[in-house]
Amino acid sequence: MIKVGFIGYGSMGSMLVGSLIRSGRIKPEEMIVSTKTQSKLEDIRKLRENIHVSEDNCEVARRAKYIFICVKPLQVKEVLLEIKPYITSDTNIISIAGSVPMKFIEQVSGAKVTKLTPSLTSEVMDGISLVCHSNAVSEEESRYIETLLGGVSTVKKVKEEDFELAAELTSCMPGFIAAIFRNLTDSAMRQGSGLSREDAEEMIIRTLQGTAKLFVEKNMGFDQMIERVATKGGITEEGVKVFNERLPGVFDEMFRKTLEKRKVVREKVESNLGMEQA
């Protein structure tokens, strides 16, 4: 019996399919995936030959109760209209298109709706998945979705209006962290040491890994970590002072820019969806 369908097999769609299978929370034969790209169909078959695959999005809608819509925001309306004849009142659509409002998906499809913002970190069974359910989603259905996603991440329920900022702190964060520590490595290289860039990157990455484990396994907060390392009058304290003086402005600017960009994208998407008056 097919329980879960995926429409779209791009970066996030393929990551979710692969990670969910590895988690063991769902069997390959309980899934169906559709994509218009022939090479991707072959990739899916190589992943697990007993996954159902199709070039027809409507087949997914006919056969699955839970349907992950993993296409670009501007493609969501087209997909919903395509599959609408096969959607029932029992269908639960799970959209990863953060800029497409849940109310729009409900109005077009007539389905129950869950919004999901996954993270690349689910590829290694970690990180945070953000979810929000429409009122029509039952407790049993929300529990099934959250249990499924709980196999590849920690699930955090947030209000739809908080999704954009929460996504900056979760889905975007691997890229932000990589950019921060790439710049830190660049600065280290400018200090004239004989360390190779490869050595410096390894030192930082391994220390990041250990620091994350301390946060999680020892239930440490940011202030506690700083207190443990930055002894009064010591070397680390001097570096922390620089961060405290300079970084707030950098991060305020980063959030201003990214949230402004989200607003522009959201308005473009809503205009294309015909939601100017929404």
Q: What report would you give on this structure?
A:
- This protein is of the alpha/beta class and 278 residues long.
- It has two domains: 4-158, Rossmann fold; 173-272, no CATH class.
- Helices cover 55% and strands 13% of the residues.
- It is built from eleven helices and eight strands.
- It has helices at residues 11-23, 38-47, 57-63, 73-83, 102-109, 139-150, 163-169, 173-189, 197-217, 222-229, 235-272; strands at 4-7, 31-34, 52-54, 66-69, 92-95, 112-117, 128-133, 154-157.
- An eight-stranded mixed β-sheet has the order 3-2-1-4-5-6-7-8, sandwiched between helices.
- Helix 4 (73-83) links the parallel strand 4 (66-69) and strand 5.
- Helix 8 packs across helix 9.
- It is elongated and about 70 Å long.
- Keywords: Amino-acid biosynthesis, Cytoplasm, NADP, Oxidoreductase, Proline biosynthesis.
- NADP(+) binds at residues 7-12, 35.
- Belongs to the pyrroline-5-carboxylate reductase family.
